[in-house]
Structures are given as C-alpha cells and as structure tokens.
Records
---
Amino acid sequence: MTTDGSTAPPPSTAISSSTRGATVRRAAAASFIGNFIEWFDYASYGYLAVVIGKVFFPESDSSVQLMSTFAVFAMSFLLRPVGAVVWGAWGDRFGRRWALSWSILIMSGSTFLIAFLPGYSMIGLGAAVLLLLLRLVQGFSASGEYAGAGTFLAEYAPAGRRGLYTCLVPASTATGLLAGSTLVALLHWLLDDASMESWGWRIPFLLAGPLGIIGRYIRVHLEDSPAFQEMNAQLEAASGPSRRTPVLDVLSRHGRTVAIAFGVSCLNAVGFYLLLSYMPTYLQEEIGIGEGISNLLTSTMLCGYISSVFLMGHFSDTVGRRTMLIGACVAFIALSVPLFWIMEGGNIWVILACELLFAVILTANDGTLATFLAESFPTEVRYSGFALSFNTANALLGGTAPFLATWLISVTGSPLAPAVYLSVVALAALGAMIVAPERSDADLTAFIQEGPKSPACTSSH
C-alpha cells in the first residue's frame, strides 16, 4: 500500500515496455502543470508590479511603490528553504507523487485567494500584510514544485535522453511566464487604468484555482517513479519500513554536493528572475520603452527561450552537463554588461536581438540544471538535496533579484548595475561548476544509498 492508500504495482512490473511511453507522457504532464501555475503567478505579479503597487501601498513616489511591491515578492521567498526541507523530506519518505499532489493544491489555493484581497484604500496597510501572508504560503508550497518535478521526470526518463525530458521543467516555467505576460498585455490593451486597478489585476490569480484542481487530479492518478519504488522495495526487503531523515542525511553525508549544487543554482536564480521577470519593468523604467512594447519584447524573448531550451537539453545529453553549465557561466560573464549597454540605445529591434541572445544563454544553463541537480544525489535524498540547494539559492538571490536590481540602479545611477550583478553571480557559479563531477551517465534507478561507507554514497561526491 502507498501512503495515500492506493496499491502500487511491484517495482519490476510498475512500468512495462508497452506502457512506458504513455506513463512517461503522463509524468511529463503532471510535472508541467504545477510549474506552469507557479510561474504564471510570478509572471502575473511581476508584470503587474506597477498596478499592484498602486493597489496595495499608499500613494508616494512611484519608485517607492515599485520597491515595496518587489519587497513583498522577495519576502515571499523567505519560506523557500523551510519549504525545501519539509517537501524534500516528504518527497523522499512518502514519494514524489504524494508531495507533488499536495504542493500544487496549497500553491494554487493561496494564489487563487490573492484575487479576493481588498486594497489599501479599503483596509490600509492590512492589505499589504494579507498580500504578504498569501505570498509566503505560496512560496512555501512552490518550493516543492520545481525540485519535485525535476526529480520525478529525471527518474522516469530514459538515461540517454534524461536531459531532453527533464528540460520540460524549465520549459513549463517559461510557458507559465509567457502565458502570464500575454494575459497581462491583453488586459492592459482591453482595460483602462481605473479598471485594471479595481478588478482587472485579479483575473490572472483567479485562474490558478481551476488549474490547480486539474493538476492535482493528474498527479494523484499517476504511479510514483520507478527509482522511488525500487528503493522502497529494497529497503523494506532488507530491514522493513524505516523512519528515514532525508534532510539530515543529505547535509551530513552529502554536504559538499549540496554546496556545489547551491553555487550552480545561484546563476539560474538571478538570471531567470532578472531576465524573464524583471526585464519589462527595466525596459519601462530605465530605457523608456512603453508598457505594451516592453511586455511584447519579453514575450518574444520567452518564445525564444521555450524554443531553445529543448535543444539545450538535448545537447546536455550529448556533451555532458558540466560542459553546458560552464559554457553558460562564461557567456554570462563575457556578455552581460555589453548586452545591457547595447540595449541602452533604445532601438526596439536591437533590444529584441539582445533579449533573444540572453534567452539562448540562459537556456544553456536552465535546460541543463534540473538534470544536473537530480543526478547529483542518491535516490534516498534526491528530492531533499535538489530542493534544499535550489530553493536556498532562489530564496537568497532569486526572489531578491528585482528588488536588488532596482536598488542598485537607484544607488549607482547606472542602468548597467543589474548586468554587473549578473556577471558576478555567474563568476561564482563558474567556481562551483569547476569542482563539480560529471554524472550524465548515472543510473538513477540503481543509485541507492545504503550507508555512509557504501559505494553509492561516496559516488555522489
């Protein structure tokens, strides 16, 4: 019996050759929809930042309102490391499916409730407090999504095509951003400012409710990954059901791997939020591009991202994860400042070309990262190791990226400040990647930790 009462098939017959393709497709759909909802929410919040600032904060300087909005966005990441510990432990003990089916329910529910919040004009600062509370719940539950989906897909995918399959996770995040930016652009086109501030901004958050129910349904009707089923069968055959402590195990036995994974994840955290979430605001506030055009440029960038991420996932299967991730670090170090400087000219077509080049560089990192993190840890602690390293990086550097970018520009007076910040983070990630091992050929199904001296344990370092 599984933890939710259903009966799982024996590991040896869980996925037969005749049904494997259909099962992998269902696993892909289950992984896709949760990340889609998460990033649809982030896109809606980021692209509606100016409107949300006016709704939830007192009238003041527009830059203060904007920084307040991004401060709430950043604070919503405070619970990510806590969520990583909780969801990672649940995912490693009770199963990937169990954790993912609950995380999507809580995440979509908290996002849905944002649509019903009153504004500052009705209850004063209480509106901002309620917004922050729901963002905190959303951040806690979302911390199980990316890591869980990446772990789930990596364990289902054929070894030789693991990078291609697992890059569906970043593709789903970009698709969510694209859907969010497209909807916000459509709302701005259809509604005047007064309508947007009174009710139009609520529409994207309302959509999270039905999407979450659909995602939950898909996940609870899917078998757990072959690697998790095989691990449970071996552990129970050896010593019966055990009360494992995945988070303590991953920190005590795989601390070096966690540190490397955190360092590598920092580039994704800053690059993704800076280039795909904050960019419309940057174009509007620093370069003077109109709201509609800036959102259209970023939507085109997202299309380029989605198109190239699968190609990069395929390349990671061919040349290895280290080569792809190191190449992305070097490209960001060399090109971030020049590309931001070129965009200062304000030519729409030049800006679009720069954004598309940024998208390709970012996918070299993002299309590889989820697979790299899943391959870095043994099955017993894979969810925990992935979630802890990835979400800690996002809590410290990802959620704060729009706020820091706005602050750095205000302090230095230079619109190139975000590019310098991105280059510095890329340099740190490069240092982590240089000492990281190549594990592209790892057999995730057989990679099971048996003790502190076992080959499986030592091989994870």
---
Amino acid sequence: MSYRTHDVAVRGGTMHVAEWGDPQGPPVLAVHGITASHRSWGLVAQRLPQVRLIAPDLRGRGRSRDLPGPFGMPAHADDLATVLAALDVPSAVVLGHSMGAFASVVLSRRHAERVRELILVDGGVPVELPVGLDPEEVGPALLGPAATRLAMTFPTREAYREFWRVHPAFADWNDVIEDYVDYDLIGTAPDLHPSTTVEAVTEDSLELAGGEALLDALAHLSHRAAWLRAPRGLLNEEPGLYSPAYASANADRLGLDLADVPGTNHYTITLGPTGADAVADVVRRALTAAEATA
C-alpha cells in the first residue's frame, strides 16, 4: 500500500505528515489522540486503499515533538488547516480519535471551509469527570498510566514492546500495534523514551473536559458529524470514556449520529480489526454523503 511522508512548515518549525492510499483519491484528514502518533491509523488505512488518508503527527508528538507550544485545541486546529493548505487540499472528511476528535471539532469552527464531514471516534465531546475535580487533575484522572508512561525510560525496544504487550487494552496484539509502539520510541539505548512530550499532554488535557474553544465549536456545530463510542476505556474497563447514558444525552443535544462499536476499547477502536472495520465503514459513508452534497 502506498505510504509517503511530508514535512510541512507550521508555527515554530515543521510538522511531520504521512499519507496512505491513492494520491488522487478523496481526501480524509485523520487526527490521532493525545499520546499517540499518525501510526495509530495503520489498520484503518489498510481498509481504505482508494482514499487519500492524510495523517499528521500533532505538535508535541511523534516526529513533530520538537514543535513548541502553546498547545491546545485552537493551535492543533490551525496546524491541521495549514497542513491541508500545504497539500493543496481545499477540504476533507475529517476523522479524529480521542483528543484528535476535539481538535477536529475546533477545526470545523475555526476553518469551516476545510471540513466536509466530521467523524468523531471516542472523543470530541467533553468527558465525564467526578464532581469537584480541579482542572490540573484532569490529565491524571483521564489518562492515568498513559500519562505516567511519558516520563519512563526503557533499555531496549523489546522492553517497550513488552510493556505494551501486557497492557490490558492490547490483549489481541497485531503487527500494526507493534509498528505503532516501535514508532513511538525515540532516543538511544539504554535511554529510550516515548516521543510525546509531557508539556503537550499537560496543556492539552486541560481542554478535554470542556475548554472555551471546544464548547464554542460544539455550540455552533454546522457539519454533519458521526460519533463512534468504544464501550471500554483506556484500561479495557467499562463503561469507557463515555457512559452509554451520557453519550446518548449528548448525541441528542448536539445532533450527533451516535453508534457503539462493540468489542472495542479506547485504543482498539482504531488499532484493532473490529474497530478499524467500523471506522472505515463510517468513512465510506461520509465520503458518499460529501460527494452527494458537493
């Protein structure tokens, strides 16, 4: 399958951007989660060979980790618009997972002309938090071990793979997960570490339970939006990031087309075959709808 990369000039440096699929195919902008990279879309890309799947490493992550702050959803949205402009893509179906869904919603408000349809994968709507939680506690409360991992070092690449192999979310290991894990690790042995910066995650996590830009974008949502929910969370626990009742109430309030993806958790909704199948199906429907209204 065709795979190519670009370095796109953005504020403070260059953003690493990958593409899968047909360079002449309909464009889909795929936006990864808070501690992830573009490699989280590998399985979805395999199911959409006819699509031009454009997937950046967001500011502070992957091979874009050296891009400076400020971070936050407006910054990510502006970066995404810059990427589309640099690649001569007037507009695209926008597919966001986890924090990438939050950035996608804000993109649809700040750069509405760049978005044809929205697909939100286990993100994009303010998450449920316990009453009284302080803003600075949002990241640890939501991410738990995922945030702790960023400060860890590993002596070898195999040690990092083993760390992930025993993770409760990854009971069903596959080659794309291994590729995702290998890509995440940077440095030299025995001082290897995850590529995502603590600064980026700390700043971005403050907006996951709300955030002025996100709330404004949701209040003025003008694009058709599908919302896929994983029944299980970051540690394969139930009910996941969004409880069924909370998800249903917000889908009704915001006019989102909500669907559960049974048998998935917050990671495997993109990195597992069941989740990738479901995401790819929704992408195809969005592309058909976008073509019909063009």
---
Amino acid sequence: MRLDGEVLLVTGGARGIGAAVAQVAAREGAAVAVLDVLPAAYGLAIEADITSADAVGAAVARVERELGPVTVLVNNAGRNAYFDPAEMSEADWDALFAVDLKAAWLMTRAVLPGMKAGGRGSIVNVASLHARLTTAGMFPYAAAKSGLVGLTRSLALDLGPYGIRVNAVSPGWTATRLVEDYLDGHPDPGARERVEGLHPMGRIGTPHQVAEVVCFLASDAAAFVTGAEWAVDGGLGARFA
C-alpha cells in the first residue's frame, strides 16, 4: 500500500502504460482518476482534451471535488511521430508538441495550487528512451521527449522548496497494443525476434513493469529522488549498437 491516501491522476490512462499505472496505483491504495480522450475502465474516468487549458482546468477541478486535491500526477499521454523534417507541416508540429510536451505543463500548472497548499506532491513524466537515443524516421519525437525530460529537471528545481518531487521515466520497447500490433503485422517475420535480441534481457517490457517504476517514484519510498530520469528499457540504452 505504497500510495495509501494519495489521489493519483494519470493522463492517457485508458490503455497501455497509463492503464497499467491506474491499476497498480489502485492496488497500492491510491484513489485514481484517469484523463483520456477514450473511455477508461479504471478509477474516476474523465474524457478530456489535455491540450486545452480550459479542459484541463475543468477536469482537475472535478477530480478535486470528487476525490480531493491531486497529490500524484502522472503525465503519461503521448503521441508517436513519423514525419519527414522537410515535409512536416507547422500544424503537425504544433499538434505533436501540444500532446507530448505542452500538456504536461498544463496538467502540472493545474494541480500545483493543491500540491503547494498541502506542502507535498509527486509528478512523474513518462518520457521515452528516444529522449537520449533515437532512430531515423521518427522525427521529431526525440525532440519532444527530450523537452519533457528538460521540463522534469526544471520543475524539480523550482518545486523542490514546496515539497514537490518531479521525475521522469523513460521506457524502451514496451508490449502495448500498438507495439504488439506493429510486431505482429511487420512484413519481416523475424522482426519480433530481432527486436527482442537487441535487449540484454532477451525480451521487451510490459506496461505493468513500467507502471511499477512509476508508482515507486510517486511514493514516499522515493522521497529523496527528484529531477531524475529512470530508464525502464531492459538495458537497451546501455548497448553500443
């Protein structure tokens, strides 16, 4: 019961890593709220556009009314990107960064009054291995996730005096539905074996394995951890390709 008494709000919690965070947090005793554009099956489910300041404010106000002030925020919602840098439109750029970076700030800004009033809080931003290492053909995902890690460090410094910790988790290959569909539908029948073989542990991760780290960082067990980026990638980031 590491999160007993906490009110945890996770974005993008209808599926994948976000849904796993909601499940693990509930198991650990937290009252859970989920924000997503899709219906969620766990906790207080709110459909909201997290790129809209008004929608974010209304959603957080509802969580506070029904569950109490948010003490743990998990900024999990995000989008992949597959653009040519010469052909990507300004609208595409703005849409990607609105979800992958701006939304984390909007969510943080909305919960800060309650956290400051309570003298404590924990924010965990779900970044990506792409914040440090990336591949061709995924422009500008790495830039957005690198920005999220930078945001994490800045917030940790500015909010530390208020008793609020801010950390990032950077997953690698994780068996979400999108990843499983990609590997199952890959034209190369050896794609899954090749991807798994890149990992020192010989496999990719699961959403719940990432969620366990998120919930650890959110809890008092990590009370002296802030401004950190934790890789949850099965050692892939340690490999010299």
---
Amino acid sequence: MDGYEHPDAFDDPRISAPFYRYCPGDGGDVLLLGVVHDHPASVGRVETVLDRLEPTTLALELPAAAIPLYRAYATRLDDRDHPTAGGEMSAAIAATDATVAGIDAPSWSFLRRLVTRLVADRAPLSTARRVLSSVGGATRTALACRLAATLSDPASGCAGVTDAVEYDVSHADTPTRQAEHERSHVSGVTALLRATDSGPKRYRDETREACMIDRLDALRDDGDVVAVVGVDHLDVLADALTS
C-alpha cells in the first residue's frame, strides 16, 4: 500500500482521517476504513479506495457465515453500478478481486473468549444472561444470512436483517455533501451511544474487538489488508494494530 498512508492521496472529502487509519506491520499493512451502515459516503469511501488499492485480503465486519450472502448481493447492481442490497459491505466485495474474510462474531473463538471473561470477572448472572441472549440473536441472524445466500432472491430470505437504512442524502449528492452529512450523523449517534452504554454491551463489543484484532493480525501475515469496519471500532483496532 505504498503511497497510500495518508487519505489526502485520494483527494476525496469522504476519505479523511476520522474514517481512515493506516496500520503498518512487519508483514502486510492494514488499512482500516470506518463506515456507517448503508451511508452513501461510506459506500463511496470503500469503492474509491478499493478502486485504487489491490490488497491481498478484504476483511469485513461480518461473521464468516454471512459472507456468501453479501457476495450474492455484490453481483446485483443498479444503474449506478452500486449493489442493490448490502450497503458498503457488498459494495466493497464488488470493488475488488481480493480474498474476502469475515472477521466479526459469532465465532468459536469469540464464544470461548466471552465465556472465559464472564467467568473470570464473576459477572452477575443477569449480565451473563443478557450477553449470551444477544449472542444467540446474532448467531441466528448469521445462520439466516447463510441460508438466504442459497435462494434465488437472497434479499427475500433475510428480510428485516439486511434492510437498507435511509438517510437524507443519496449517491446522487456530491461527495462533499455526503461527507458533511455522514460527519453530522456520526456525531449524533456517538453521543447517543455514550448515554446508553451498558455492561452487557461492553462485554460483547470489547470481546468482538479483541477477536477482530487477532484475526486482522493473522490476515496481515499473508499480505496487505483493507478492513471495512464500523467507525466506532476504529480507535481500538488502530491502536492495537500499530502498537
């Protein structure tokens, strides 16, 4: 990824420091692209970056079981050549020939790490139940996505799970307008998440991030990696991958 350490190389307002983190390593390098689900600026960000770079691996914040569904979405394009479903994740797959890897939970390593932490922390039973209940829901969603990928109309098999989010901005708007709207949206959502933070959510998210870090560190041994992840994970992942 020589020459792409800085987002200014792309001359695109959607590709800027808060959403773009370059993590050099002894093996391959990792480029983290922060995204907001289904936001036009995020879709444009991953498409523009992957059109210029040729990573060995495209890592997505999706469970491995969901990757076939998003591969199917990536083959169904609208008149602007954007996938009709799957947002920035299917757009990323459509934009590169790199090997695609799902790095998010649920996975066996995630479950082992989560249970070990709950036991070590002597978490209250009520907290453990809420955490494991959310994991169960995520597992059912991942399996539904895997099944939907086998259908002739994948979107119909995962209705309500991969539905698009609507924003007051579209792909037809200028990159500057998209970037401004995305920044405003992220600012509002971040404040809301801080106000609603909870113990079960921290257990789940911190364990997810630890597993994503391990997975990205392993993937970079094979070459350069572009990782598309939620913008709220960027700081933790970048700090770990550059330490």
